[in-house]
Design brief:
The protein has 14 helices and 15 strands. It has helices spanning 18-22, 50-62, 73-93, 107-122, 141-150, 167-172, 196-204, 225-228, 253-258, 293-309, 311-330, 357-366, 379-385, 401-418; strands at 38-39, 101-104, 128-132, 153-157, 178-184, 210-213, 232-236, 247-251, 269-272, 277-279, 335-338, 347-352, 369-370, 372-374, 390-394. It starts with 17 loop residues before the first helix and ends with a helix. 46% of the residues are buried.
Length: 419
Amino acid sequence: MTARLSTLSPPPAPALDVGRLRADFPILETRPGGNALVYLDNAASSQMPRQVIDRLVRYQRSQHANIHRAVHTLSEIATAEYEEARRKLARFINAREEREVIFTSGTTEAINLAMHGYGRRFIGAGDEIILTTLEHHSNIVPWQMLAEEKGAKIRVVPISEAGELLIDEYENLFSERTKLVGVAHVSNALGSVNPIKQMIAFARARGVPVLVDGAQAVPHMKVDVQDLDCDFYAFSGHKLCGPTGIGILYGKAALLERMQPFKGGGDMILSVSFEKTTYNVIPQKFEAGTPPIAAAIGLGAAVDYLSGIGMEAIAVHEHNLLDYASAQLRRMKGVRIIGTAAHKAAVLSFALEGVHPHDVGTLLNQDGIAVRTGHHCAQPVMQRFKVPATSRASFAFYNTMAEVDALVAGIRNVQKVFS
């Protein structure tokens, strides 16, 4: 029998002691190029606290073995720790059952799993898939591949000048041929927080499943997949203070049971003969071969760490950073903020008049300030705002107001160089 998980939420955490939390992150003590590190590239990948690093080392040093394969002690320990990590992730997003949590290599593989397992089975010629202008390429390209293979059509929700989805246009895109909606919870390029609960409810009333790309949401806010009522939810570990090479696809059990496997191999089967293969139950049906055991256990430690801080407290601190940084940049001449949605996560994209974003990033780096420059794997967003790329500062709970001041001073220095 599959255990059901408690839906009780922990009480709100107190205000963050950022100085104490920063001490948990060894990399923040480094001085690239001789400068104190100001790490503002958290939307690409967050940093890892000692607690997660130590957990990975402990697993590799004293617990490592392959899982689900043997009856010896190390294998039993590794299996138990791996499955405990699944339970931790299920509680973290409030999945109804732990078997609804599939370990993947990251958000990209999670979306591809849903495309192959669900899309290729249930979407056919003439059917329609609704995506949005705000999507990361990983939530565009797989569906384009499916549409080309099946003869399906992709329809796109436009955005306003502020970077907000036009919900009336979204609703007008639905037809009797709509078979799936794919939408980012938070835009990685702009930080816009989309009204996905409203969007899911509209789709649900029409019997259309919804896949949510949560890569930029889960690290910054409390996510409850039961409350959202989404059908799929994908996210990555490395944006969540965890290791690279690990991610999650949450899916409602009834849908996962109907889906075909994405990969074939060991551990995703119950029996194999040359005449017929019988697939394993979920979640094992979607976890062929040796999984990223250490990374999964490390991700379990990461969500323990974040839960101990409190996602509500994290969200408040990051919003304060974003508000402060946005106010500073709005007062600067020659600086254009790209994406001014009323509801944003801790992402600030901007363009400097007369300066290419790559030059901005290079000069900021000389001051020890790490930002991301480019199209952020969101070229439709760049096309919408008629820019080739942006500079993007993205904040985490361990960032400070002083680091925002350093960013502002760095931007002024860039402007002086190009004046």
